[in-house]
Amino acid sequence: MAGINQHYSYFRSPFGDVIGLFANSQHYPRCRELELNVLDCTDVYGHKGLTKQCNLEYEDYLECLYNKKQKARVAAMQKERLRQYYAGERTKKDFYAEPPKLDSFYQTYGKSID
């Protein structure tokens, strides 16, 4: 399989084989394992199983590549923040949360647990 795609071509050509070398996510470390999981699933169920049996793995892989749910979540948070600002619940000063202090990550490990 040259790449993971819902639109599978039944005709093979040398051009498609060359493009298949670049049409993968193995160069992107975050999505490597997810792509291999989808490929393992399609090896078992075939390419037609991509939308049936392998749907969860395929959706996780697409989310890793395109971040659609993450971007929608950020947009919803920005919309809510603007709503609160226009309703008077937030001021211009506290529009965003206060950032953590500089080097606050390292100070937490310097304290004793006792």
Automatic annotation (TrEMBL):
<dbReference type="InterPro" id="IPR019342">
    <property type="entry name" value="NADH_UbQ_OxRdtase_FeS-su5"/>
</dbReference>
<keyword id="KW-0249">Electron transport</keyword>
<feature type="disulfide bond">
    <location>
        <begin position="31"/>
        <end position="64"/>
    </location>
</feature>
<feature type="disulfide bond">
    <location>
        <begin position="41"/>
        <end position="54"/>
    </location>
</feature>
<dbReference type="Pfam" id="PF10200">
    <property type="entry name" value="Ndufs5"/>
</dbReference>
<keyword id="KW-1015">Disulfide bond</keyword>
<keyword id="KW-0999">Mitochondrion inner membrane</keyword>
<keyword id="KW-0813">Transport</keyword>
<keyword id="KW-0472">Membrane</keyword>
<comment type="function">
    <text>Accessory subunit of the mitochondrial membrane respiratory chain NADH dehydrogenase (Complex I), that is believed not to be involved in catalysis. Complex I functions in the transfer of electrons from NADH to the respiratory chain. The immediate electron acceptor for the enzyme is believed to be ubiquinone.</text>
</comment>
<comment type="similarity">
    <text>Belongs to the complex I NDUFS5 subunit family.</text>
</comment>
<dbReference type="GO" id="GO:0005758">
    <property type="term" value="C:mitochondrial intermembrane space"/>
</dbReference>
<dbReference type="GO" id="GO:0005743">
    <property type="term" value="C:mitochondrial inner membrane"/>
</dbReference>
<keyword id="KW-0496">Mitochondrion</keyword>
<keyword id="KW-0679">Respiratory chain</keyword>
<protein>
    <submittedName>
        <fullName>Complex I-15 kDa</fullName>
    </submittedName>
</protein>
